[in-house]
Structures are given as structure tokens and as C-alpha cells.
TrEMBL record, chain A:
InterPro entries: PRELI/MSF1_dom, Slowmo/Ups
Name of the featured protein: Intermembrane space protein sorting protein
GO CC, alphabetical: mitochondrial intermembrane space
Classification of source organism: Eukaryota, Fungi, Dikarya, Ascomycota, Taphrinomycotina
Domain PRELI/MSF1: 1-170
One Pfam family named in its UniProt record: PRELI
Organism, scientific name: Schizosaccharomyces octosporus (strain yFS286) (Fission yeast)
Top-rank taxon: Eukaryota
Automatic annotation (TrEMBL), chain B:
GO molecular function: phosphatidic acid transfer activity
Lineage: Eukaryota, Fungi, Dikarya, Ascomycota, Taphrinomycotina
UniProt similarity note: Belongs to the TRIAP1/MDM35 family.
Cellular component, GO, one term: nucleus
One Pfam match: UPF0203
GO biological process, one term: phospholipid translocation
Protein name according to UniProt: Distribution and morphology protein Mdm35
Keywords, sorted A to Z: Disulfide bond
């Protein structure tokens, strides 16, 4: 398994970031995400908002993957817990198909920055595990690891784009 | 606003999303968690969505993912 960790900061309050995060699709930096459906949503006994979404990603698949498994589309499950009291958003995302090729998990935590609570800090953890044998799995994981930072920049730009678009938030 | 994976559900989804986004900013973030003004729209959207998940055979993928938890 390959692991990637990252910490970053948005120059916007948590309330705005969490609102933008929820409605971050579509945006020009995530044009490969073609749909986002809400499967489940409820508030738990602690007042936290739970959401489960199904994302469909299309295209942008590396050539070796499409050759190996005829992959052009992928289903992603995204779960989030939002605690407005604590000002915390936790998310996990993972693919639910093509698991013979790869399981990619991503965890994010958004909370106010410790130094400046008008900013939002994000902690990201990504894991890539491929069950492929003969060294292929390692190559797949390495490939994902190499591409991940760029994808991360894209997804953050997407959130900022949506944030700008809906400046009237809260 | 994002589309549904099943085109015929997109109108119901977008109606629900509009309600939810407003609720999130103006109610939830302000501590009003018992307000359930979008429930009816969510129900309508889910009726369409769950039918589509069955027809398009996405359900088994979801079930397998939940079993693994």
C-alpha cells in the first residue's frame, strides 16, 4: 500500500469552505466528475450532519488501466460528517468498482486553523492499494502516488472556484 | 449544480439541492438542526434515484461496499 499525507490551508472561514465543499461539483477543475448523487443524509444524536454521495468519474484514465480492464468510468462513494459546533468536516472517499485493479481511499479533515480561526486547515491522507501481482500492483500504486499531488491541487482549486462563485455564503 | 447519474432524476435532484444548500447555510450552520424543510424534496429525488440504481445495476456495487465496512 502507498500512502500520501498533506496539510494545507484555505484563506476563508470554515463555514464558507464547508458550504463550498458540499456543492463543489461541477467545477472546471473536476470536469471528470460527471455526476454527484446524495444516497443518504441524516443528523445524528450529536447534531452532526452525515451525508453519503455517489460520484461518477469518467475519462482521464491512464492508458495501462484502460488496456488492462477496459476502464473508462468509475463509481466513487463519498461519506462525510459535518459538525457545525466543533466546526469540523470529515470526509472519506473510495472507489467501489475496479477493485481488482486498485482501491484508492482519501480522507480529509477541514477545521479552523489553530493560528487564525478565520482560515481553514485541511489534512489529507490518501492510500492506494492494488491487488495486482507480479510487481504490477506496486507500479499501479506508484503511478497513483505520483499523480495524486496534482489531483489534490485540482480539487482544492475546484473548491476555491465554487467559493468565489457563491460569494454570498453565510 | 451537479447532475444525477441518471438523467431523469436530475430535475428532482436539483430542486432538492437548492433547498438543501439554502438550509445548510441559513439553518444548519446557525444551529437550527431540527428544521426538516427539504425532507419532501429529498424523498421525491430518492424515489427516482433508487429506481435508477436498480435499473442501472449500481446497487450490487453499493451493497458490496457496505458489507466491507
Amino acid at each position: 500500500m502507498s500512502v500520501y499525507k498533506d496539510e494545507s490551508e484555505f484563506d476563508a472561514p470554515w463555514e464558507n469552505i464547508s458550504s463550498a465543499w458540499l456543492r463543489r461539483y461541477p467545477n472546471p477543475y473536476s470536469s471528470h466528475v460527471v455526476s454527484a448523487d446524495v444516497l443518504e443524509r441524516y443528523i445524528d444524536e450529536k447534531g452532526r450532519l452525515h451525508t453519503e454521495r455517489l460520484l461518477v468519474k469518467q475519462g482521464r484514465v491512464p492508458r495501462w488501466a484502460s488496456e488492462l480492464l477496459n476502464v473508462s468510468k468509475s463509481y466513487i462513494l463519498e461519506r462525510s460528517i459535518i459538525d457545525a459546533n466543533k466546526r469540523e468536516l470529515l470526509s472519506e472517499t473510495f472507489n467501489i468498482d475496479h477493485l481488482k485493479l486498485l482501491k484508492a481511499m482519501e480522507y480529509n479533515r477541514y477545521q479552523p486553523s489553530q493560528e487564525d480561526s478565520s482560515k481553514t486547515s485541511i489534512t489529507t491522507l490518501a492510500q492506494f492499494a492494488s491487488p495486482l501481482r507480479l510487481g504490477l500492483g506496486r507500479r499501479v500504486q506508484k503511478y497513483c502516488l505520483k499523480r495524486f499531488p496534482e489531483q489534490l491541487i485540482g480539487s482544492r482549486r475546484g473548491i476555491l472556484y465554487v467559493l468565489q462563485k457563491y460569494k454570498s455564503f453565510s | 449544480m451537479s447532475s444525477s447519474f441518471s438523467e431523469e432524476c436530475t430535475p428532482a435532484k436539483q430542486k432538492y439541492d437548492t433547498c438543501f444548500n439554502d438550509w445548510y447555510v441559513n439553518k444548519f450552520l446557525k444551529g437550527d438542526i431540527h428544521n426538516r424543510e427539504c425532507d419532501d424534496l429529498f424523498y421525491e429525488y430518492k424515489q427516482c434515484l433508487f429506481k435508477a440504481l436498480k435499473v442501472k445495476k449500481v446497487e450490487p456495487l453499493l451493497e458490496a461496499a457496505r458489507k466491507e465496512d
